[in-house]
Amino acid sequence: MNIQLKAEYEQFIQTRIATGRYENAEDVIAKALKLLEEWEKGYQEWEEETQKKIAVGLASIERGDVLDGEVVMARLSEKLRKARETQG
């Protein structure tokens, strides 16, 4: 496979090779692709977990297990007030 890279990417690769950590451009690109693969896996796991949490939240709403927004804000304000007192 032949690919054209922007000049800044070529420079980036050359800089990495110059550090001695990589022998050639293929090593740098292989590492970059491995990191991309790991990141995408982590993102996919995060997305799946978020979808589960949303489903749980929606089911809770459908059952009527919700709090009034003013109650939530009052509780948060109280937690913040206590945290400030503890720090001060």
TrEMBL record:
Q: Which residues form a coiled coil?
A: 22-49
Task: Give yes or no: UniProt keyword Coiled coil.
Answer: yes
What domain of life? Bacteria
List, alphabetically, the Gene3D superfamilies matched.
Antitoxin ParD1-like (6.10.10.120)
Alphabetized, the UniProt keywords read: Coiled coil
Q: Which PANTHER family match?
A: ANTITOXIN PARD
Name it. Type II toxin-antitoxin system ParD family antitoxin
